[in-house]
Amino acid sequence: xxxxxxxxxxxxxxxxxxxxxxxxxxxxxxxxxxxxxxxxxxxxxxxxxxxxxxxxxxxxxxxxxxxxxxxxxxxxxxxxxxxxxxxxxxxxxxxxxxxxxxxxxxxxxxxxxxxxxxxxxxxxxxxxxxxxxxxxxxxxxxxxxxxxxxxxxxxxxxxxxxxxxxxxxxxxxxxxxxxxxxxxxxxxxxxxxxxxxxxxxxxxxxxxxxxxxxxxxxxxxxxxxxxxxxxxxxxxxxxxxxxxxxxxxxxxxxxxxxxxxxxxxxxxxxxxxxxxxxxxxxxxxxxxxxxxxxxxxxxxxxxxxxxxxxxxxxxxxxxxxxxxxxxxxxxxxxxxxxxxxxxxxxxxxxxxxxxxxxxxxxxxxxxxxxxxxxxxxxxxxxxxxxxxxxxxxxxxxxxxxxxxxxxxxxxxxxxxxxxxxxxxxxxxxxxxxxxxxxxxxxxxxxxxxxxx
Length: 452
Ligand SMILES: Nc1ncnc2c1ncn2[C@@H]1O[C@H](COP(=O)(O)OP(=O)(O)OP(=O)(O)O)[C@@H](O)[C@H]1O
Hints:
Elements: E1 8-12, H1 16-28, E2 32-36, H2 39-48, E3 53-57, E4 59-60, E5 63-64, H3 65-72, E6 81-85, H4 90-98, E7 103-106, H5 111-123, H6 130-135, H7 146-159, E8 165-168, H8 175-184, E9 194-198, H9 206-214, H10 222-225, E10 230-234, H11 241-253, E11 255-256, E12 265-266, E13 270-275, H12 279-285, H13 290-296, E14 299-302, H14 310-324, E15 330-331, H15 333-341, H16 347-361, E16 366-367, H17 369-372, H18 374-380, H19 385-388, H20 403-421, H21 426-433, H22 437-447
Parallel strand pairs: 1-2, 1-3, 3-6, 6-7, 8-13, 8-14, 9-10, 10-13, 15-16
Antiparallel strand pairs: 4-5, 11-12
Helix pairs in contact: 1-5, 7-8, 11-13, 14-16, 20-21, 21-22
């Protein structure tokens, strides 16, 4: 991935001027950049996307970037985190490095430094799974059931048209994958860009959002960057009212105005939007424009929930197992039975996360129900294995653990398990844990874990 066209960054930065300049520069380099201006928005973005790099400012209007990162880093699965500090924030940056962040940049810094880091991290092969997911766009696993074959046929039918397509379905069901599949099927369009607009993450400030979408100050926006490709409006129901009007005009006239420009620009991009919200209900409630809904929903394709596709579930589970397991692993009979019974409220995303976690935590080669659904095992036989693994210190105490103690105990137990699985080899364990060797040593020292 030294070519940055397939890479993505989530940036959490509240300074509109610095943030916008950086976003534009990264996007010009072909990096898909999601920008959150608050800690809350950043957390929402990180729960939905696995970027190749997280850039996080330390001071945010609604909280502390340090606390946010310390809380989320364990869930990021090895995605590198680079902290941005203003003058005077060095102490916090150092604390974050100790807590597992990968690097820091002291502001102001040129955008090129971020691009260099992206390349360097990519060479360390610490990228995330989304790029691999893209590879499966040509033949998506778990698209064999009758409803998915019907969806595939519909995508093929509408692929070469220009018409706007709306993809609906529950969260995590694979709407993003379907949008990429549509793009890949669309002939000449497939070699043009596929540009993602994360509608939920556009800045609340309309002018700033308009610059990102339509461009300004001589720089193109996302609509223009899509060229003759696909403009993918993810979670379009989250588009603020002011931007709904601009989008409607774009759909009707196929033209837009760069901010501050006099001449409109024509777009040849095809628009594909997704939503997991009930848009007609939003229209009825007056929070989504009826005319925009009408324009968007001409061709609406619905992705069925995973619980209605048991055959696909098995295919997908095996796909994720192959992807996350380095050694030979399988599903135990009770593991597969439990998966077939589970209602999968988080759909394919939940399945992916459960298999990934089970591969890392389970000791036996065959993943059992308790590895895939540890919350059920814990309910049946408290205390949790993670806590019981930390002898004396916590398991025998009568009063409840503080959050920090519980986190340390779980982390300590997990590091011990992974180290044991890797035969005590620090490099392998760090790789499996998605952290650097230095970070692992540091954590082991702090948590009192030794290599036996
Ligand atoms: N058929 C598939 N093969 C491999 N991975 C898949 C497949 N379908 C979905 N995924 C993975 O599941 C996760 C969720 O998929 P995706 O983002 O497309 O869902 P979504 O319906 O757009 O979710 P949301 O509405 O929450 O944005 C992603 O990591 C995606 O790569």
